[in-house]
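The record is kept unedited without comment:

——
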Amino acid sequence: MKLTDKRFWIYEIATALCMSAFSLTVYSYSIFCILLILLSNALAVAIGLIWPKNIGVLYTWLGIWGAAIGAYLVDVTLMVKFNMTIHEPYPLIVVQIYLLPCFILVSGVLCFAGWIIMNKTYKRTAFKAIFTALLSIIGAIGAAANINIGKNVVPFVIFIGLAIVGCLLFHKSLKDIQGKSPVDLWKLRKAKYETWRDGKANQVSLSGNDYLYGLRQIFPFMVAGLFILSCTLFGLFSPDQSNEWKAKGLVGNVSDLYIFDDGKGIAISSLRYMNHPDTATVYLTENGGRKWDLFIELPGYGRAFNTVRINDDVYCAIQHHSAYEIETINHKGSNWWSDFKFANPPILFAHNDSLCYAANGIFYRTDRYLKEADSIGCYSLQPANKGLAVVQNHIFGFTFYQSPGGYRLYDFTADSYIADFSCKGDVSLIKSSDNTCVILTQTGREVESYLLDCPTGTMTKTEQFDFGMMEPLRSEGSVIYSIVTKRPNTDSYILYSLDAGKTWNTHSINESHIRACCIHNGYLYFYNQFMHTICRQKLEIKNL
């Protein structure tokens, strides 16, 4: 095809929009992503249409298909390289295990339809009628799917536009049909389709019958009915959206999520853009995470870590250049900063509704406003950032030892090891009662739970689980929990205890790469990094 050929632009525009619809449904959160997707698909289709000179129609559409797949891979690569979306690089790449085959299938179906239209329709009128009808059908189904699945404005507008424009063009393509001559549209098999290679059109006048005349009149209503039917069907098979909603206004790498009473909540995130300093951000919500407002933006600050929730306040440590600071955040819109800075990352933990931290060889307790700090002990061995607990005025935690490598349980107050307990894998410790601590260990593909009786120093193994990865232990009220997975890139589970670590339960989250989560009033809330949604799942938890 030539650039001056009208049919080239018909194929170019229609095919490029159809090829872009899939990507726009997923990646349309940024104007740069939208422009990139539209431009790359337009170039891919144009190359496929212009490049072949003497090859058949089949190879032309195979070339368009291959070019579209290449354009998709280039788009994802550029999005990851230049941080063009709200999705973080790792989940964006991993999810291509599922999205890339879907795109290959969808684009293949579209190219097959294009080959059918170009190769099997013969007369100009027949081509226009079939092409515009398919355009309307794709638009109606795509708009319905986006309402129930994608919920993005841009692809919905594109699909609706395809449906409306297709209906108008279909009506125009059959303008010569008057309902008088009994000519069947599908009996045009002997007429040779006008070739675009020689630039000449072999147009044959077409008259229709009463059926085509009636179809011309009712076709818009058929498309509207198809749209309503598709919405119903997609709604039946789509998941319950009442427990999942878009996190509007929340951007960046969300590391922590906290939901409070009355739907208020806190989310801590970090931003990394080219030619801009790393930025730590804090967002607040008043409706359960459906809409987030930027509360704090800190250019030059890195990602927050070691977050601790105490009542209505959230404490975290943040790196600023070569030093570390501590911040208090309240969901009502208040925050306080520490007057002191640390050369090394402080380890935060809670004790009697007060914030404590380990830094510079001393354990400190500070007030809510981070203005005054009192010593509650000191340490000769460096504590590992695997949890600290104050039980019976003794501070328990883990230390790292070099040979043979791993972590050892330690009483920093008594300056002695506990029960000679050690682990070569990952560990986590948290206070569970006035006399006990809960410990999780991960070695190989197993997670084990232990109960430490602090006054006697007795270790009791409670349960063993078939999980290969775990997150640090956390507590929300009387619930102690951790996020665990069996292998990388598999569904996450919440491992939780209701009786201070004596027994454990598991609940499948049915999502992978869950980092930001919390438990509130018997519900698990978590942030889905790729879909950019806040999800809520009911847990069978009693006595909260």
The longest helix spans residues 210-237. Residues 386-508 form a domain with the Neuraminidase fold (CATH 2.120.10.10).
